[in-house]
Amino acid sequence: MKKITLIFIILFLPTIMMASSGVVVLQRGDIGSGWGDDQTSGVPIPRVTYDDTSITFACDSAIAEVDVFVKDIQGNVLIEDTISLNQTYVLHHMPETMGHQRYLVELFFDDKYFYGYFEQ
Which of 4, 74, 93, 118 is the most buried (most CB within 10 A)? Predict the structure, then answer.
């Protein structure tokens, strides 16, 4: 039984380790006075997750016209889109040019700016 378990681990561990997925921790950016005095109340905060093939944007509140940018570490724009968020919006098919490096996700809406990083 131990041999079977060891063989299973040896065969499938590299495949499991190559799959990357996670949550992008968004931070609030500053683009002028769009935040007002109370900087968090009533502001919908999007959630961003990713895996090897897609990036998913979601929010509990509906947000119209969210400008989305995904950039590599050199600042090259890999994904640029304007989306409307409800429960989930998936940008399928991560560009094949995206290799293993760090990326920046930026979201702009209603004079608000959120950003976060992920590695793939």
Answer: 118
Q: How far apart, in whole angstroms, are the C-alpha atoms of residue 104 and residue 102? A: 7
Residue showing tokens 């409307």: 84
Q: Sign (positive/negative) of CA torsion 88, 92, 65, 27?
A: positive
Which DSSP helix (H) or strand (E) runs through 45?
Answer: none
C-alpha to C-alpha distance for 58 and 45, rounded to whole angstroms = 9
Q: Please give the DSSP secondary-structure letter assigned to residue 52.
A: S
CA distances from 46 to 66, 67, 84, 97 (A): 10, 12, 11, 26
**Residues 61-119: pLDDT tens digits?**
899 999 999 998 899 998 899 999 887 777 766 666 666 788 999 999 988 999 999 98
Of the ranges 34-38, 41-45, 53-57, which one carries the lowest mean pLDDT score?
Answer: 34-38
